[in-house]
Amino acid sequence: MTQTTDPTLVDPVPAHGLATLDARDVSAWFGDHKVLDRVSLTMPAGRVTALIGPSGCGKSTFLRVLNRMHELVPGASLAGEVLLDGHDLYSPDRRLTDARRQVGMVFQKPNPFPTMSIYDNVVAGLRLTGTRVGRAGCDDLVEESLTKAGLWREVRDRLRSPGGALSGGQQQRLCIARSLAVRPRVLLMDEPCSALDPTSTRRIEETIAELADEVTIVIVTHNMQQAARVSHRCAFFLASHGTPGVIVEHGPTALMFDSPQDQRTADYVHGRF
Ligand code: ADP
Ligand code: MG
């Protein structure tokens, strides 16, 4: 058997499989300012969960808690638990890069590295989380990730072009591909379409629907039609009169829209807020 020290010849990225994400009694602060109060939510494996609610009620903060970005904000603190398939995401035994690799994030504004090639942008997802893959494995992962993000056919002949040369919608799909390259178990999306035109938005919604079979998705959206189209479950966040954000109601999307239990949910989903 030949021994190799070639760092490019390492194991392929393992497919982690679907996972349920569970937030239990999550409270979050920025300094003395409490912005989430005992939020509990199960985001089931293989389902799309939409987080809805007015601006400032802590949806983005909640997403950052779910992939351990909140702890990087100076002065930020939190309480409660986040469990990934029953295992503590914040366990001292778990490295931050592992948490990030298993729970990926896509932001509102597409943020590919603009001068980096399309190929390298996808690979950057691996580097950012300390995941090592051989060159052949890399090519396969780039194709796989771009295909899942619905971008492969458009860019396969120009993988060396800069990411910044793509349209806004394509850039967002490139960011989705970058997140998928590490084969996360959960993908968090913070208003991924709000900077995009309707056609690009549709493309991303189609991608979300296809991805839901293999990655648990949590999406923040202000667009109620979008929440109704893409999600299986919804959670309605609210922070009234300066109080910290709470979940007023959560459940299957159809129920939340058709027969909400709380009048405030009814008002919000029907645009009366
Ligand atoms: P949403 O995404 O629902 O609009 P956010 O999570 O962005 O809500 O914000 C919740 C609250 O936390 C707001 O009052 C906001 O001003 C505050 N906040 C968000 N980010 C920071 C930060 N980095 N430092 C201090 N306060 C913040
Ligand atoms: Mg937000």
Automatic annotation (TrEMBL):
Residues 21-269 form the ABC transporter domain. SUPFAM superfamilies: P-loop containing nucleoside triphosphate hydrolases. GO terms for molecular function: ATP binding. Transmembrane segments: none annotated. Keywords: ATP-binding, Nucleotide-binding, Translocase, Transport. Gene3D superfamilies: P-loop containing nucleotide triphosphate hydrolases. It comes from the Bacteria. InterPro entries: AAA+_ATPase, ABC_transporter-like_ATP-bd, ABC_transporter-like_CS, P-loop_NTPase, PstB-like. This is Phosphate ABC transporter ATP-binding protein.
